[in-house]
Amino acid sequence: MSGVMEKPIKIEDLLQRNVYDVDEEPHIAIPMDDQTGIPKELTLLCPCGCYTSVGEKLLYSYEGCLECGLCRVVSNNPRMKWTYPKSGRGVHYRFT
Ligand code: SF4
To answer: Is residue 6 part of a domain?
Structure first.
């Protein structure tokens, strides 16, 4: 044990280490005309803030998605699309 305390790392700093190879075709699509079954709490639950609430509508962006699958699991709308990005696209995690 060195006795030197390491400085805590903020989650925002860890996320900025990732590399995103964004596919032009969204891998997530939620219907704008009927968002039944898509919980507004996604604005709080999504770990990278992909969801925002504007009035009664839930807006989203897929570019910074961590592909955790949480929004797919908690949503119950058959018109919601959730797939992984094409092979090799999407988030590339960096752990150093
Ligand atoms: S899969 Fe995870 S990171 Fe991506 S938008 Fe859904 S909740 Fe957010």
So the answer is: no
Report the CATH number at residue 15: 3.30.70
- Rounded-to-integer distance, Cα 24 and Cα 38, Å: 24
Residue 2 lies in a domain: no
The DSSP secondary-structure symbol of 45 reads H
Ligand 1 in contact with 44 (CB < 6 A)? no
Q: Is the CB of 46 under 6 A from ligand 1?
A: yes
pLDDT in tens, the chain (96 residues): 556 788 888 888 888 899 999 999 999 999 999 999 999 999 999 999 999 999 999 999 999 999 999 999 999 999 999 999 999 999 999 987
- Structure pTM? 0.86
